[in-house]
Specification:
Distance between the termini: 20 Å
Bound molecules: cytidine-5'-monophosphate
EC number: 2.7.1.148
Enzyme class: transferase
CATH architecture of the largest domain: 2-Layer Sandwich
Function: Catalyzes the phosphorylation of the position 2 hydroxy group of 4-diphosphocytidyl-2C-methyl-D-erythritol.
Shape: globular
GO molecular function: 4-(cytidine 5'-diphospho)-2-C-methyl-D-erythritol kinase activity
Number of helices: 10
Number of strands: 10
Strand content: 25-35%
Radius of gyration: 19 Å
Pathway: Isoprenoid biosynthesis; isopentenyl diphosphate biosynthesis via DXP pathway; isopentenyl diphosphate from 1-deoxy-D-xylulose 5-phosphate: step 3/6
Number of domains: 2
CATH class of the largest domain: Alpha Beta
C-alpha cells in the first residue's frame, strides 16, 4: 500500500469545565469529547525521498509550521528509510472554530503515515507524540468519545447519546490563547467525577469559556443567542462554533434551512468511535 484517503473528523466539547491553571500556563480541564461524521479529508501518497509536501497550502500558515507537516516530521525518525509523503487536504473545518480541525488533521497524519510507512507504533505511542503538537491531538489519535482531564490528554472512553447536531460558524476565528489568557475567565470550577458529569446529562452541561467568548466576540454571542432560541445551545471548545443537539434529522434540517445568511452551518451525527478509526478498520 502506498496511498490512503482518510477522514479527519470534527469534535465537539459536549461540556467543558476549567478547574485550574498549571505553572506552565496551560489550564486543567474536565471535558467530554465526541466526534462528528463531518470533517476534513486527507490523501497521502508515499515518497521515497524524505520530502513532505502539503497542497493546497493553508493561507497564513507556513507549510513547515502546519500541524500536518509537523506530524509527519515527528514520525520520520522512526523509519529506517528516507520516507516522505505528498499530502492533499480537503478542508471543511474552519480554523479557530473549536471543532479541533488542525488537531484532527495532525492525528489523521500520524495514523496514516504510521500505517503507510509500516511503523506500527500503536495508538498509545502515537497519542504521546500527538500531545507534543497540541492538547487536543491525543483524543483524535485514540478515536473514542472520552471524558478528558489534565489539559485534555487524560482520557477515559465513554458512551454518549448520539443525536443530530447543527453547528454554526459565525464567520470569525477565535484565538484560543486569547480566551485562555483572559483575566475574567472562570478557572476554579470544582472538579466533579466522571460518573456525576454523565449522570447530570446534556441539560446540565455547560462550557466555562462561554461567558468570556461572548464578551470578546460579539459575533459568537449573536450566534449563541439566535440558536438558543430554537434549541439548547453550547459553545464548543473556545469557539467560534456553537452547536445544538436534536433528536431527529428532520428537526436538524429545519434549523439548518433557517440559518442566517453570512453564517456557515452544517448538520452532522454524533459518533462514539471516530470515523477515522472506522475507515482504518481499527474498531
Ligand atoms: O495545545 P493547543 O496548541 O491546542 O493550545 C493552544 C493554546 O491554548 C495554548 O497555548 C494555551 O494558551 C491554551 N490552552 C490552555 N489550556 C489547555 C489547552 C490550551 O491554556 N488545556
Amino acid at each position: 500500500m502506498t496511498a490512503l484517503t482518510l477522514p479527519a473528523p470534527a469534535k465537539l466539547n459536549r461540556m467543558l469545565h476549567i478547574t485550574g491553571r498549571r505553572d506552565d500556563g496551560y489550564h486543567e480541564l474536565q471535558t467530554l469529547f465526541q466526534f462528528l461524521d463531518h470533517g476534513d479529508t486527507l490523501t497521502f501518497q508515499v515518497r521515497e525521498d524524505n520530502q513532505v509536501t502539503l497542497s493546497p497550502s493553508l493561507s497564513g500558515v507556513v507549510d513547515e509550521d502546519n500541524l500536518i507537516v509537523r506530524a509527519a516530521r515527528l514520525l520520520q525518525p522512526y523509519s529506517q528509510r528516507p520516507l516522505g509523503a505528498d499530502i492533499q487536504l480537503q478542508k471543511r473545518l474552519p480554523m479557530g472554530g473549536g471543532l479541533g480541525g488542525g488537531s484532527s488533521d495532525a492525528a489523521t497524519t500520524l495514523l496514516a503515515l504510521d500505517r503507510l510507512w509500516g511503523l506500527e507504533l500503536g495508538l498509545e505511542r502515537l497519542a504521546e507524540l500527538g500531545l507534543q503538537l497540541g492538547a487536543d491531538v491525543p483524543v483524535f489519535v485514540r478515536g473514542r468519545a472520552a471524558w478528558a482531564e489534565g489539559i485534555g490528554e487524560r482520557l477515559t472512553p465513554v458512551s454518549l447519546d448520539t443525536p443530530w447536531f447543527v453547528v454554526i460558524h459565525p464567520g470569525i476565528e477565535v484565538s484560543t490563547p486569547r480566551v485562555f489568557g483572559a483575566p475574567q475567565l472562570t478557572r476554579n470550577t470544582p472538579p466533579i467525577s466522571m460518573a456525576r458529569a454523565l449522570q447530570e446529562g446534556p441539560e446540565a452541561w455547560r462550557n466555562d469559556c462561554e461567558p468570556v467568548v461572548r464578551q470578546l466576540y460579539p459575533e459568537v454571542n449573536d450566534a449563541l443567542g439566535w440558536l438558543s432560541g430554537l434549541a439548547p445551545t453550547l459553545l464548543t471548545g473556545t469557539g467560534a462554533c456553537v452547536f445544538c443537539r436534536l433528536t431527529s434529522e428532520d428537526e436538524a434540517s429545519s434549523i439548518l434551512g433557517r440559518v442566517r445568511s453570512g453564517w456557515t452551518a452544517f448538520m452532522a451525527h454524533g459518533c462514539n468511535t471516530s470515523p477515522l478509526h472506522q475507515a482504518l478498520g481499527l474498531f
